[in-house]
Amino acid sequence: MSMFEISIAGTAVSTNDRPIRRPAGHQSMRNVLPILPLIACLAHPALAANAKPRSDVQDLKACMIKAKADPRGCIESIVNPCVKALSNDSEDGVNGCYDREAAAWDDILNTTYKSELADAESFDKDAKANGGEPGAAISLKQAQRAWIAFRDAECSRLYARNMDGTIRFTVAAACQNRLTAERAIELSQSDAP
């Protein structure tokens, strides 16, 4: 009878029902299984590129403060060093770098939008109390919805224009990053003259 190892309720036994003796210090596969997804994420370049989103937000905010007059220069300030740090310029890795920066810009955009909306609602409340017509908050909501529709349509258009190659994924990721960054910057300066 051949000896095959099977596991029953976490105990290794052979097919002839004898316990399997393992060398001291041996770890079974079940001790490794819980960390396999983490290992897979870190090994995949696109997922590894997503390693520092919180510090990316801080880095972009610091760049915007430093840039003052031209914060658009901060666009791709996370992407470029991320791509340079890749062991190879795989498309998945590059796309992961774009996704990483886009996530940071999206965080900045959402925070800025909430602040601007609260300001618009306060403005509307004051306008109404003083006999004026409120409309700042509803206009901001309409503008944001229209911008989201534009961003999605524009990036879909660029994706479709590059349908014949795998570059379409990078083009779409770069589009999402650029337009999200531009909107975050624009909205943060919306009250500027």
TrEMBL record:
Residues 82-187 form the Lysozyme inhibitor LprI-like N-terminal domain. It comes from the Bacteria. This is DUF1311 domain-containing protein. InterPro entries: LprI-like_N. Pfam families: LprI.
